[in-house]
Protein backbone atom coordinates (compact mmCIF):
# COMPACT_ATOMS: atom_id res chain seq x y z
CA UNK A 1 0.00 0.00 0.00
CA UNK A 2 1.43 3.37 -1.04
CA UNK A 3 1.74 6.21 1.44
CA UNK A 4 -1.08 8.72 1.34
CA UNK A 5 0.01 12.05 -0.13
CA UNK A 6 -1.88 15.00 1.31
CA UNK A 7 -2.43 18.05 -0.86
CA UNK A 8 -1.85 21.50 0.54
CA UNK A 9 -4.87 23.56 1.58
CA UNK A 10 -5.17 26.40 -0.94
CA UNK A 11 -6.00 30.00 -0.14
CA UNK A 12 -8.28 32.57 -1.77
CA UNK A 13 -9.73 30.21 -4.39
CA UNK A 14 -12.46 31.32 -6.81
CA UNK A 15 -15.75 29.43 -6.50
CA UNK A 16 -17.43 30.98 -9.53
CA UNK A 17 -17.18 27.83 -11.67
CA UNK A 18 -18.28 25.66 -8.73
CA UNK A 19 -21.72 27.24 -8.19
CA UNK A 20 -24.56 27.01 -10.70
CA UNK A 21 -25.59 30.65 -10.19
CA UNK A 22 -22.10 31.53 -11.53
CA UNK A 23 -21.68 34.41 -9.09
CA UNK A 24 -18.28 35.59 -7.94
CA UNK A 25 -17.07 34.33 -4.57
CA UNK A 26 -13.74 33.24 -3.15
CA UNK A 27 -13.03 30.70 -0.44
CA UNK A 28 -10.57 31.80 2.22
CA UNK A 29 -9.33 28.18 2.28
CA UNK A 30 -10.06 25.31 -0.11
CA UNK A 31 -9.33 21.60 0.03
CA UNK A 32 -10.18 18.93 -2.53
CA UNK A 33 -10.73 15.49 -0.98
CA UNK A 34 -9.92 12.60 -3.34
CA UNK A 35 -9.92 9.72 -0.86
CA UNK A 36 -11.83 8.98 2.35
CA UNK A 37 -8.46 8.17 3.97
CA UNK A 38 -7.56 11.86 3.65
CA UNK A 39 -10.33 12.70 6.10
CA UNK A 40 -8.82 10.37 8.69
CA UNK A 41 -5.35 11.81 8.12
CA UNK A 42 -6.59 15.38 8.48
CA UNK A 43 -9.13 14.76 11.24
CA UNK A 44 -7.52 17.05 13.83
CA UNK A 45 -6.78 19.77 11.31
CA UNK A 46 -10.38 19.76 10.02
CA UNK A 47 -11.83 19.75 13.53
CA UNK A 48 -9.80 22.84 14.40
CA UNK A 49 -11.18 24.80 11.46
CA UNK A 50 -13.62 27.38 12.81
CA UNK A 51 -15.85 27.49 9.74
CA UNK A 52 -16.32 24.74 7.16
CA UNK A 53 -18.57 24.06 4.21
CA UNK A 54 -18.90 20.89 2.11
CA UNK A 55 -19.38 21.81 -1.55
CA UNK A 56 -20.91 19.20 -3.86
CA UNK A 57 -22.33 20.08 -7.27
CA UNK A 58 -22.95 23.70 -6.29
CA UNK A 59 -26.55 23.48 -7.48
CA UNK A 60 -28.46 24.26 -4.31
CA UNK A 61 -26.68 27.28 -2.91
CA UNK A 62 -26.13 30.99 -3.36
CA UNK A 63 -22.96 32.83 -2.41
CA UNK A 64 -23.75 36.42 -1.38
CA UNK A 65 -20.09 37.15 -0.70
CA UNK A 66 -16.75 35.46 -0.15
CA UNK A 67 -16.73 32.41 2.10
CA UNK A 68 -14.52 33.19 5.13
CA UNK A 69 -13.78 29.59 6.14
CA UNK A 70 -12.65 26.29 4.67
CA UNK A 71 -14.47 24.85 1.65
CA UNK A 72 -14.17 21.07 1.36
CA UNK A 73 -14.65 19.76 -2.19
CA UNK A 74 -15.00 15.96 -2.14
CA UNK A 75 -14.22 14.08 -5.35
CA UNK A 76 -15.23 10.56 -4.35
CA UNK A 77 -16.41 8.21 -7.09
CA UNK A 78 -17.45 4.59 -7.49
CA UNK A 79 -20.42 2.21 -7.55
CA UNK A 80 -20.66 -1.12 -5.74
CA UNK A 81 -23.31 -3.83 -5.53
CA UNK A 82 -23.49 -4.97 -1.90
CA UNK A 83 -26.33 -7.47 -2.19
CA UNK A 84 -28.85 -8.58 -4.77
CA UNK A 85 -31.44 -11.24 -5.47
CA UNK A 86 -34.14 -11.71 -8.07
CA UNK A 87 -36.27 -8.90 -6.67
CA UNK A 88 -33.97 -6.30 -5.10
CA UNK A 89 -30.50 -4.81 -5.16
CA UNK A 90 -28.48 -2.88 -2.56
CA UNK A 91 -26.07 -0.32 -4.07
CA UNK A 92 -23.26 1.63 -2.37
CA UNK A 93 -22.60 4.81 -4.34
CA UNK A 94 -19.82 7.32 -3.71
CA UNK A 95 -20.94 10.84 -2.88
CA UNK A 96 -19.51 12.73 -5.85
CA UNK A 97 -21.24 10.67 -8.53
CA UNK A 98 -23.55 12.82 -10.65
CA UNK A 99 -27.15 12.25 -9.57
CA UNK A 100 -28.79 12.19 -13.02
CA UNK A 101 -26.11 9.89 -14.42
CA UNK A 102 -26.70 7.57 -11.45
CA UNK A 103 -30.45 7.49 -12.21
CA UNK A 104 -29.65 6.58 -15.83
CA UNK A 105 -27.23 3.88 -14.67
CA UNK A 106 -29.95 2.33 -12.50
CA UNK A 107 -32.43 2.24 -15.37
CA UNK A 108 -29.89 0.68 -17.71
CA UNK A 109 -29.13 -2.01 -15.12
CA UNK A 110 -32.80 -2.71 -14.40
CA UNK A 111 -32.86 -1.14 -10.92
CA UNK A 112 -36.06 0.84 -10.47
CA UNK A 113 -37.56 3.51 -8.23
CA UNK A 114 -35.50 6.63 -8.91
CA UNK A 115 -36.85 7.44 -12.39
CA UNK A 116 -39.15 10.21 -11.08
CA UNK A 117 -36.04 11.98 -9.77
CA UNK A 118 -34.36 12.23 -13.17
CA UNK A 119 -32.56 15.39 -14.26
CA UNK A 120 -32.25 16.84 -10.75
CA UNK A 121 -28.89 18.62 -10.70
CA UNK A 122 -26.29 17.80 -8.08
CA UNK A 123 -24.48 14.82 -6.61
CA UNK A 124 -25.47 11.56 -4.96
CA UNK A 125 -24.06 12.76 -1.63
CA UNK A 126 -26.20 15.89 -1.65
CA UNK A 127 -29.42 14.01 -2.44
CA UNK A 128 -30.14 12.71 1.09
CA UNK A 129 -28.94 15.91 2.77
CA UNK A 130 -31.63 17.83 0.93
CA UNK A 131 -33.98 14.83 0.72
CA UNK A 132 -34.57 15.66 -2.92
CA UNK A 133 -38.02 14.97 -4.28
CA UNK A 134 -40.03 15.42 -7.46
CA UNK A 135 -43.13 14.11 -9.22
CA UNK A 136 -44.46 12.14 -6.28
CA UNK A 137 -41.20 10.58 -5.04
CA UNK A 138 -38.62 11.50 -2.37
CA UNK A 139 -35.18 9.97 -2.21
CA UNK A 140 -35.62 8.87 1.42
CA UNK A 141 -37.91 6.08 0.18
CA UNK A 142 -34.89 4.27 -1.28
CA UNK A 143 -32.13 4.99 1.22
CA UNK A 144 -30.85 2.20 3.47
CA UNK A 145 -28.13 4.17 5.23
CA UNK A 146 -25.56 6.92 4.76
CA UNK A 147 -21.82 6.77 5.43
CA UNK A 148 -20.30 10.07 6.49
CA UNK A 149 -17.45 11.70 8.35
CA UNK A 150 -18.04 13.86 11.42
CA UNK A 151 -15.74 16.82 10.82
CA UNK A 152 -16.05 18.04 14.41
CA UNK A 153 -14.86 14.89 16.16
CA UNK A 154 -12.96 13.18 13.35
CA UNK A 155 -15.00 9.99 13.30
CA UNK A 156 -16.57 7.93 10.55
CA UNK A 157 -20.16 7.01 11.21
CA UNK A 158 -23.12 5.31 9.61
CA UNK A 159 -26.58 6.83 9.83
CA UNK A 160 -29.54 4.52 9.37
CA UNK A 161 -32.59 5.75 7.51
CA UNK A 162 -34.32 6.51 10.82
CA UNK A 163 -31.28 8.34 12.16
CA UNK A 164 -31.30 10.55 9.07
CA UNK A 165 -34.62 12.01 10.32
CA UNK A 166 -35.83 12.83 6.84
CA UNK A 167 -38.45 15.52 6.36
CA UNK A 168 -39.62 17.68 3.48
CA UNK A 169 -36.38 18.92 1.82
CA UNK A 170 -34.66 18.33 5.12
CA UNK A 171 -32.59 15.83 7.09
CA UNK A 172 -30.58 15.42 10.26
CA UNK A 173 -27.38 16.19 8.35
CA UNK A 174 -28.79 19.41 6.94
CA UNK A 175 -30.05 20.56 10.33
CA UNK A 176 -26.68 19.79 11.93
CA UNK A 177 -25.12 22.67 9.99
CA UNK A 178 -23.10 23.23 6.85
CA UNK A 179 -19.76 22.04 8.17
CA UNK A 180 -20.53 19.17 10.52
CA UNK A 181 -20.85 16.10 8.29
CA UNK A 182 -19.30 15.12 4.97
CA UNK A 183 -21.22 12.36 3.19
CA UNK A 184 -18.86 9.80 1.62
CA UNK A 185 -21.28 7.10 0.41
CA UNK A 186 -25.02 6.49 0.15
CA UNK A 187 -26.51 2.98 0.21
CA UNK A 188 -29.73 2.48 -1.75
CA UNK A 189 -32.32 -0.31 -1.76
CA UNK A 190 -33.86 -0.56 -5.22
CA UNK A 191 -36.33 -2.91 -6.84
CA UNK A 192 -35.87 -5.03 -9.95
CA UNK A 193 -39.63 -5.11 -10.54
CA UNK A 194 -41.04 -1.96 -12.18
CA UNK A 195 -43.49 -0.06 -9.99
CA UNK A 196 -44.10 3.28 -11.76
CA UNK A 197 -45.31 6.11 -9.51
CA UNK A 198 -47.85 8.21 -11.41
CA UNK A 199 -49.47 10.16 -8.58
CA UNK A 200 -48.18 13.47 -9.95
CA UNK A 201 -51.03 14.79 -12.11
CA UNK A 202 -49.07 15.68 -15.29
CA UNK A 203 -47.52 12.19 -15.28
CA UNK A 204 -50.90 10.57 -14.73
CA UNK A 205 -52.38 12.59 -17.59
CA UNK A 206 -49.48 11.79 -19.91
CA UNK A 207 -50.02 8.05 -19.57
CA UNK A 208 -53.80 7.82 -19.14
CA UNK A 209 -54.24 6.22 -22.57
CA UNK A 210 -51.60 3.53 -21.94
CA UNK A 211 -52.41 0.19 -20.35
CA UNK A 212 -48.80 -0.35 -19.30
CA UNK A 213 -46.18 2.22 -18.33
CA UNK A 214 -42.48 1.36 -18.02
CA UNK A 215 -39.84 3.07 -15.85
CA UNK A 216 -38.20 4.26 -19.08
CA UNK A 217 -41.49 5.93 -20.06
CA UNK A 218 -41.60 7.71 -16.70
CA UNK A 219 -37.94 8.73 -16.94
CA UNK A 220 -38.37 10.19 -20.42
CA UNK A 221 -41.56 12.04 -19.51
CA UNK A 222 -40.01 13.50 -16.36
CA UNK A 223 -37.03 14.68 -18.42
CA UNK A 224 -39.35 16.19 -21.01
CA UNK A 225 -41.38 18.07 -18.38
CA UNK A 226 -38.28 19.34 -16.57
CA UNK A 227 -36.63 20.52 -19.79
CA UNK A 228 -39.83 22.28 -20.80
CA UNK A 229 -40.28 24.08 -17.49
CA UNK A 230 -36.83 24.41 -15.96
CA UNK A 231 -33.76 26.11 -17.43
CA UNK A 232 -30.51 24.16 -17.75
CA UNK A 233 -28.04 25.77 -15.29
CA UNK A 234 -25.29 25.33 -17.89
CA UNK A 235 -27.22 27.54 -20.30
CA UNK A 236 -28.95 29.94 -17.88
CA UNK A 237 -27.40 30.03 -14.39
CA UNK A 238 -29.81 29.11 -11.60
CA UNK A 239 -30.05 26.84 -8.55
CA UNK A 240 -33.31 25.10 -9.36
CA UNK A 241 -36.28 25.74 -7.08
CA UNK A 242 -35.29 28.66 -4.89
CA UNK A 243 -38.12 28.27 -2.36
CA UNK A 244 -39.76 25.40 -0.52
CA UNK A 245 -43.48 24.80 -0.87
CA UNK A 246 -44.94 26.16 2.39
CA UNK A 247 -47.08 23.96 4.64
CA UNK A 248 -50.09 25.53 6.37
CA UNK A 249 -52.87 24.43 8.71
CA UNK A 250 -56.27 23.38 7.42
CA UNK A 251 -57.80 26.62 8.73
CA UNK A 252 -55.19 28.72 6.92
CA UNK A 253 -55.70 26.71 3.74
CA UNK A 254 -59.45 27.31 3.71
CA UNK A 255 -58.89 30.98 4.50
CA UNK A 256 -56.61 31.24 1.46
CA UNK A 257 -59.00 29.30 -0.78
CA UNK A 258 -61.86 31.63 0.12
CA UNK A 259 -59.81 34.60 -1.10
CA UNK A 260 -57.94 32.85 -3.93
CA UNK A 261 -60.15 30.07 -5.40
CA UNK A 262 -57.50 28.99 -7.95
CA UNK A 263 -54.86 28.42 -5.26
CA UNK A 264 -52.87 25.22 -5.80
CA UNK A 265 -52.53 23.12 -2.66
CA UNK A 266 -52.93 19.55 -1.47
CA UNK A 267 -53.11 17.68 1.85
CA UNK A 268 -49.97 16.16 3.36
CA UNK A 269 -49.53 13.31 5.81
CA UNK A 270 -49.33 14.41 9.42
CA UNK A 271 -49.79 12.54 12.69
CA UNK A 272 -51.09 15.53 14.63
CA UNK A 273 -52.74 18.15 12.42
CA UNK A 274 -54.39 18.18 9.02
CA UNK A 275 -51.89 20.16 6.98
CA UNK A 276 -51.77 21.40 3.41
CA UNK A 277 -48.80 22.04 1.17
CA UNK A 278 -49.17 25.16 -0.97
CA UNK A 279 -47.47 25.49 -4.36
CA UNK A 280 -44.93 28.27 -3.85
CA UNK A 281 -44.69 28.67 -7.62
CA UNK A 282 -48.40 29.52 -7.76
CA UNK A 283 -48.02 32.11 -4.99
CA UNK A 284 -45.09 33.78 -6.76
CA UNK A 285 -46.78 33.66 -10.17
CA UNK A 286 -50.05 35.04 -8.81
CA UNK A 287 -48.13 37.85 -7.10
CA UNK A 288 -46.85 38.98 -10.50
CA UNK A 289 -43.22 37.88 -10.36
CA UNK A 290 -43.18 35.20 -13.04
CA UNK A 291 -41.04 36.30 -16.01
CA UNK A 292 -40.01 39.60 -14.41
CA UNK A 293 -36.50 41.01 -14.79
CA UNK A 294 -34.61 43.43 -12.58
CA UNK A 295 -31.16 44.38 -13.75
CA UNK A 296 -29.35 41.24 -14.88
CA UNK A 297 -31.45 38.76 -12.90
CA UNK A 298 -35.06 37.67 -12.90
CA UNK A 299 -37.73 35.04 -12.31
CA UNK A 300 -37.96 32.36 -14.98
CA UNK A 301 -40.74 32.81 -17.53
CA UNK A 302 -41.89 29.18 -17.31
CA UNK A 303 -41.37 28.41 -13.61
CA UNK A 304 -41.84 31.08 -10.95
CA UNK A 305 -39.94 29.00 -8.37
CA UNK A 306 -36.70 29.52 -10.28
CA UNK A 307 -34.63 32.69 -9.98
CA UNK A 308 -32.29 33.02 -12.96
CA UNK A 309 -29.07 34.91 -13.44
CA UNK A 310 -28.62 36.38 -16.91
CA UNK A 311 -25.22 37.97 -16.36
CA UNK A 312 -24.91 39.32 -12.80
CA UNK A 313 -21.80 38.35 -10.86
CA UNK A 314 -23.03 39.59 -7.47
CA UNK A 315 -24.98 37.00 -5.48
CA UNK A 316 -26.26 39.67 -3.11
CA UNK A 317 -28.45 41.06 -5.91
CA UNK A 318 -30.07 37.64 -6.32
CA UNK A 319 -30.68 37.44 -2.59
CA UNK A 320 -32.24 40.91 -2.60
CA UNK A 321 -34.70 39.78 -5.29
CA UNK A 322 -35.50 36.67 -3.22
CA UNK A 323 -36.17 38.85 -0.15
CA UNK A 324 -38.46 41.09 -2.22
CA UNK A 325 -40.46 38.01 -3.23
CA UNK A 326 -40.58 36.77 0.39
CA UNK A 327 -41.85 40.14 1.62
CA UNK A 328 -44.53 40.37 -1.10
CA UNK A 329 -45.83 36.85 -0.46
CA UNK A 330 -45.96 37.56 3.27
CA UNK A 331 -47.92 40.76 2.61
CA UNK A 332 -50.44 39.19 0.21
CA UNK A 333 -50.98 35.73 1.67
CA UNK A 334 -49.62 35.87 5.20
CA UNK A 335 -47.17 33.09 4.33
CA UNK A 336 -43.41 33.30 4.85
CA UNK A 337 -41.54 31.54 2.08
CA UNK A 338 -38.43 29.64 3.13
CA UNK A 339 -35.45 29.38 0.75
CA UNK A 340 -34.64 25.88 -0.42
CA UNK A 341 -31.14 26.97 -1.43
CA UNK A 342 -28.43 27.57 1.14
CA UNK A 343 -27.31 31.18 1.50
CA UNK A 344 -23.56 31.48 2.09
CA UNK A 345 -21.07 34.29 2.51
CA UNK A 346 -21.26 37.36 4.64
Description:
- The protein has helices at 36-41, 43-47, 99-109, 126-130, 172-176, 201-206, 215-229, 250-259, 280-286, 315-333; strands spanning 10-14, 26-33, 52-54, 61-63, 67-74, 79-84, 88-94, 133-134, 137-138, 143-150, 155-160, 181-191, 238-241, 247-249, 265-268, 275-278, 293-294, 297-299, 306-309, 342-344.
- The protein has three domains: 10-74, Uridine Diphospho-n-acetylenolpyruvylglucosamine Reductase, domain 2; 79-191, 2-Layer Sandwich (Uridine Diphospho-n-acetylenolpyruvylglucosamine Reductase, domain 3); 238-344, UDP-N-acetylenolpyruvoylglucosamine reductase, C-terminal domain (Uridine Diphospho-n-acetylenolpyruvylglucosamine Reductase, domain 1, Alpha-Beta Complex).
- It contains ten helices and 20 strands.
- The strands form six sheets. Strands 6-7-12-10-11 form a five-stranded antiparallel β-sheet. The protein has a four-stranded mixed β-sheet with strand order 1-2-5-3.
- The chain is an alpha+beta fold.
How many separate domains make up the residues? Answer: 3
Our Rg estimate from Cα atoms comes to 21 Å
- Helix percentage: 25-40%
What is the CATH architecture assignment of the largest domain?
2-Layer Sandwich
Q: What is the average per-residue confidence, as pLDDT, rounded to a whole number?
A: 94
Low-confidence stretches: none
Look at the structure and give the CATH class of the largest domain: Alpha Beta
Number of helices: 10
**Structural class assignment:** alpha+beta
- Shape assignment: globular
Termini, distance in Å? 43 Å
- What is the element string, with H for helices and E for strands? EEHHEEEEEHHEEEEHEHHEEHEEHEEEHE
Strand ordering within the main sheet = 6-7-12-10-11
Biggest beta sheet attributes: 5 strands, antiparallel
Indicate the proportion of strand residues: 25-35%
User: At the third CATH level, what is the topology name of the largest domain?
Assistant: Uridine Diphospho-n-acetylenolpyruvylglucosamine Reductase, domain 3
Number of strands: 20
Amino acid sequence: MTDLILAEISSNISLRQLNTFRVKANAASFLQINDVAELDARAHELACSNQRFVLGGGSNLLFIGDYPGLVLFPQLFGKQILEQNEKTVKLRIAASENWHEFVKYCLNEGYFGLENLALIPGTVGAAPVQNIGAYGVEVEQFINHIECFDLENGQKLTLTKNQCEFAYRDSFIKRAGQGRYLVTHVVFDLCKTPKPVLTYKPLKNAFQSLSKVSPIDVFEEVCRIRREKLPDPKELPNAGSFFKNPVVTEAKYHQLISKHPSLVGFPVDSLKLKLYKIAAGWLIDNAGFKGMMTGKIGVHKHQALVIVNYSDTNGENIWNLAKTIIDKIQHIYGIELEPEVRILGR
